[in-house]
Amino acid sequence: MKILVINAGSSSLKYQLYNMTDESVLASGRVERIGMDSSIVTHEPAGKPEVRSVSEILEHTTAVRRVMDMLTDPEVGVLASINEIDAVGHRIVHGGETFRESALVTPEVKLEIRNLFDLAPLHNPAHMMGIQAVEAVLTGVPQAVVFDTAFHQTMPQSSYLYPIPMVLYKRHKIRRYGFHGTSHAYVSDKAAKVLGKPLESLKLVSCHIGNGASCTAVLEGKSYDTSMGMTPLEGLMMGTRSGDLDPAIVPYTMNKEDLTLSEVNSMLNKHSGLMAISGLSSDMREITDAMKEGDSHAQLAFDMYTYRVRKYIGAYAAAMNGIDTLVFTAGVGENSAVLRETVCSGLTFLGLELDPELNAQRSKEARIISTPDSRVSVLVVPTNEELIIARDTFKLVSAEA
Ligand code: AMP
């Protein structure tokens, strides 16, 4: 079975085509600048160099058509015909309280995703455009939706409610939802397999640290608490997002700086985090390079960033009455040995001992980086959200057949 995984944003559409026989990626790529002049399509067939083309792509249906052109191109394509695509899986950021697991797309499911537009105004409408574009181009092909929030639907009320008037939860569903759920679920499961233990037996903290970043406490194999909240702004300090702060800062800043709601929103989401403190970059590679040159602002940004990761790990160890497994994943978590070392250096009180050599090694495989005597097993597990989407889609479509 061949499954196309799509992550549709408002002006971009990323794709990966999987052969589910061996879960290999046949091709991947992205369409950028949808709706602007000179849209860019980048297509990479497995084992061959990527190709780029520039054309005018005004909306998502044309973007999906261009992807089909690439996938069936006589030179760079990997399919004889688009009829070879058996199913399409979509990444959906917000499943609200409705979706506890992935689902096949039906008129009812589309209606529910629409009902959640308010909770994820930047993401869910774009995902819906992706679903509709696929309907138009690949008519009749089954589609599935896989939610970033679904894994966290197991959180108890004491984790997901905010201490504000209950009426706000009842009327507007204001609560913690959490994100990166697909990633946290995948790396937790993989970590348990690497350790050769049942996931249900572990007290695990998963740190997904990429452009966006979140920590999740996984207890008895389920999400017990997570650092992102109603939106992906809460929790850890991120590339350009502030993460946790005193909510009173928002009205105070609006008043002092004469900012509108949308300006303050943009400040916290796009002009904060590593970028704001370093004054240099939101990219951890540039921060750590600048630190080596003695840049004190980059050093401060790094110190704040790692301090906040460590605080969350400590908080979740307390929340679960212990921790025996710590997992690092995503762009920064998988690649930055210095970040892992700095975070873990303050956790020796938990009996956690990192092996400096294992930590420094580079590998695309999931691996243990703690010493054999460490009371907490520390692992690096490369995440693969697209593969989870492909697997869930495969399962749902196979069950229907
Ligand atoms: P993601 O959102 O998971 O794709 O992560 C992207 C981020 O990972 C980039 O913005 C970089 O900050 C970070 N990253 C990638 N490679 C490295 C590296 N070798 N060292 C530190 N950070 C990295």
Automatic annotation (TrEMBL):
> How is the co-factor bound, per the entry?
Mg(2+). Can also accept Mn(2+).
* Organism the protein comes from: Paenibacillus beijingensis
Q: Active site: which residues?
A: 148 (proton donor/acceptor)
Q: Which PROSITE patterns match?
A: ACETATE_KINASE_1
Q: Which GO terms describe its molecular function?
A: acetate kinase activity; ATP binding; magnesium ion binding
- Which NCBIfam families does the UniProt entry name for this protein? ackA (TIGR00016)
Residues at the site labelled Transition state stabilizer: 180, 241
On subunit structure and binding partners, the annotation says:
Homodimer.
Q: State the protein's purpose.
A: Catalyzes the formation of acetyl phosphate from acetate and ATP. Can also catalyze the reverse reaction.
Q: Taxonomically, which superkingdom?
A: Bacteria
Could you tell me the EC number(s) of this protein?
2.7.2.1
Q: Which GO terms describe its biological process?
A: acetate metabolic process; acetyl-CoA biosynthetic process
Kindly list the places in or outside the cell where this protein is found, as annotated in its UniProt entry: Cytoplasm
Q: Report whether Magnesium shows up as a keyword of the record.
A: yes
Residues annotated as binding substrate are: 91
Q: What is this protein called?
A: Acetate kinase
